[in-house]
Design brief:
Radius of gyration: 22 Å
Structural class: alpha+beta
Order of helices and strands: HHHHEEHHHHEEEEEEHHEEEEEEE
Number of strands: 15
Strand order of the largest sheet: 8-7-6-5-4-3-15-14-13-12-11-10-9
CATH architecture of the largest domain: Clam
CATH class of the largest domain: Mainly Beta
Number of helices: 10
Largest sheet: 13 strands, antiparallel
CATH topology of the largest domain: outer membrane lipoprotein receptor (LolB), chain A
Number of domains: 2
Strand content: 25-35%
Oligomer: single chain
Shape: globular
Length: 380
């Protein structure tokens, strides 16, 4: 029943916005829900692409940025906390900052703890001890808070076994809430316009063009200038007032992540082992949760218990030094061409370049799309 309701691009419209919620201003990705992407060359490791790598040897290059962002968030510092400055620029290969040696020892310690105690799972990270502070606190603060009553915590949110809905029921309710599969299947190419506000308050005009199920183009305009990004499944490019270039390995990995995010929304196909994960709260709304795995990512989906609409998605990716979550909240559902879509999407992430609020004011489906605009423009 689940597969029949979800296959071939389940509620394309609502989940199209889900994808856009994760697209940073600097780049964009694509997906193909029908055909597999061509095989790509094996990714290089961090020690192959950067100098003076001593601890993170053998780790895929695409994990470097998430790992560094996890350090920053865990200790409440920026890159200068461990890296040296030379001639006004960050010298990442230098060992002149003594904190870098300390960081290497801490990385080894965390990796050994996880290896020896948690079968290699990233159960412990820098945040476990630091909690956003440069120096971890070793004693409890006084006065102590009262302990939670017996029976509290996560167990209190779980429904009795006899009352727990199954994944099929939750998914079916969502399909009907957004308008049904038949209405969604009619929606093809699209163009959306609105605004994007980053965590630092910077605002930009936003335009998104989607060509079928394989190409995505994002244009942003700020007082500092315009930027365009595109990804077509096998490669991508970025152009702004400062540069025009191909996507780097980290950006390509992010694009692949968006492909996975699209597939995970086709629940029955991308995540065939979804399970009920209890009740929760999203703001003041009661929610029911599903959880599952998508590749090496853990996914938690929270649906409005009353309306059935998707309220929140949390995707957690494991790295060798810890886990990095991305949380996306969906608000202001409105009907467009017979399907309800969230017009406001808020994304929170350890990597602030992925975070922000997108508000759409104009949505058009089945529009004419010029395929040439996805091609990288000729350099002047």
């Amino acid at each position: 029943m689940m597969r029949e309701n979800i296959k071939r691009g389940l509620v394309f419209a609502a989940f199209l916005f889900t994808l856009i919620a994760l697209v940073p201003n600097r780049w964009v990705s694509a997906w193909d829900g029908q055909n597999a992407a061509p095989a790509q060359a094996e990714e290089k490791t961090i020690d192959q692409t950067h100098k003076n790598i001593q601890v993170l040897k053998g780790v895929p290059d695409s994990q470097l940025r998430p790992i560094m962002q996890l350090f920053n968030a865990s200790l409440g510092v920026n890159c200068a906390g461990c890296h040296a400055m030379k001639e006004g620029r960050m010298d990442f290969a230098s060992d002149d900052n003594p904190h870098k040696q300390v960081a290497r020892q801490m990385i080894k310690m965390v990796m050994e703890i996880n290896k020896n105690n948690f079968n290699g799972r990233a159960q412990v990270s820098c945040y476990t001890c630091h909690q956003g502070k440069e120096h971890p606190v070793g004693v409890p603060p006084l006065p102590l808070t009262a302990p939670a009553p017996a029976g509290g915590g996560a167990a209190a949110n779980a429904a009795p076994a006899g009352d727990a809905p199954n994944a099929d029921q939750i998914v079916d309710k969502y399909v009907q809430a957004v308008g049904g599969k038949a209405a969604a299947d009619k929606l093809k190419n699209s163009r959306m316009k609105g605004s994007m506000v980053m965590p630092n308050g910077q605002s930009s005009d936003l335009e998104v063009v989607v060509d079928g199920s394989s190409k995505l183009l994002v244009k942003t305009t700020t007082p500092q200038g315009a930027a365009t990004s595109a990804f077509t499944g096998t490669g991508g490019w970025v152009k702004n007032s400062r540069e025009q270039r191909a996507m780097n390995p980290t950006e390509t990995a992010m694009a692949k992540g968006l492909l996975e995010d699209f597939n995970v929304i086709k629940l029955g196909e991308a995540m065939p082992k979804l399970t009920y994960a209890g009740r929760a709260k999203v703001g003041d709304r009661d929610a029911v949760a599903l959880r599952g795995m998508q590749g090496n990512k853990r996914v938690r989906l929270l649906f409005d218990a009353q309306t059935g609409l998707l309220l929140r998605r949390v995707v957690t990716t494991d790295t060798v030094i810890g886990s990095t979550p991305v949380q996306t909240d969906y608000e202001d559902y409105r009907e467009v061409d017979g399907v309800k879509v969230p017009m406001t999407i808020r994304t929170s992430a350890v990597d602030q370049s992925m975070a922000g609020t997108r508000k759409f004011t104009e949505v058009k489906y089945n529009v004419q799309v010029d395929a040439t605009q996805f091609e990288a423009p000729a350099k002047p």
